UniProtKB/TrEMBL annotation:
Residues 36-350 form the Glycosyl hydrolase-like domain. SUPFAM superfamilies: (Trans)glycosidases. Keywords: Signal. InterPro entries: Divisome_Glycosyl_Hydrolase, GH, GHL10. The lineage of its organism: Bacteria, Bacillati, Actinomycetota, Actinomycetes, Kitasatosporales. It comes from the Bacteria. PANTHER family: GLYCOSYL HYDROLASE DIGH. Residues 1-25 form the signal peptide. This is Glycosyl hydrolase-like 10 domain-containing protein.
Amino acid sequence: MGRLSRRAFALAALSTLTTASGAVAAPRRPWWLPTEMRGVWLATVSNRDWPSKPGLTAAQQRAELIAHLDRAAADRLNTVILQVRPTADALWPSPYEPWSQYLTGTQGKNPGWDPLGTAVTEAHRRGLQLHAWFNPYRVANHTDPTKLAASHPARKHPDWVVPYGGKLYYNPGLPEVRAFVEKAILDAVRKYPVDAVHFDDYFYPYPVAGQTFDDDAAYDRYGGAFVNRAAWRRDNIDKLVRETAAAVRRIRPTAQFGISPFGVWRNAVTDPLGSDTRAGVQSYDDNFADTRKWVREGWIDYLVPQLYWNIGFAAADYAKLVPWWAEQARGSRTKLYLGEALYKAGDPAQSAAWQDPAELSRHLTLARQYQQVRGHVFFAAREVASDPIGAMARVGADHYQVPAVPPR
């Protein structure tokens, strides 16, 4: 079969099918299609990607969501990573946390529909996987607990909360916090046939100059067995990762568990095992996330380091980080995908490299040299839709000529 006819056949085979009764059938996937992750993050925090603003009607919100799913399918992506717990809240009817304010403008107000349930159903109708994205510890993008819904767990348990950097966070050092966070997340896993649970890069918050994350009481109570506070903090995050992974496997064995951390584990000048970078942030030291361990130990199903830098960037060169991460994934059960900074393409505040529509396409070309790299995820849906300088169109033309099946 020639390349053009094969492509036409693949597109037809993946189109939505209707049975004689009018029900939607699952798309057929030709066995010979390539297998790779082609994902997009769909962020809801601060109405970043969706809904476009709070307070839209249920019909308007649904229509916008469907448009994002349609665009992902049209661009021959195969996975949408939807943020369903942006700030210790919910985009589904949760018995544990209030409805997200990013839906109605009022935290706790029922939007009149089920966004997560709709997203899973409609994604699957289009042959897309739906990964449910949860932020574990962020409570609010402000420091005033009285602005939270009266029913919010952070108001009922103020001792769980630490203000830091103008925001509120749950304290990862409290076992009761970790248990609650896991319970709130797993409610969605029980209720919906999500294809994965997804965490982003926010574990302990990124450092803010001149401020201290006050977990003294928790460290005094629980940190005695550790050589220092940093080791204790990393163990707290390790526990969250291991426990969540085990619970997801138990509750929904078909679902995966993936994490998208900051793209630099440690710089080589800090640790000889680290990458040839000079990044100002290191996830091991600043987020207390030992991302390299999670990969090498195979605790998680996939990792998507956020490699949000151009090829040749001095402090963190994409071309140096890809082989470093590929080496960490070698021999591990953890699949490696790469997070791509589509949002930088055409942004006038970015360097000249990001004004070139071909920059991201070159990323994919480079990554194909490394068999451990199983695909890419693009940040984010708003830029997939607008594609201001055609960078996503270039990726599609150069690399996504036919559909692909996401790895399992």
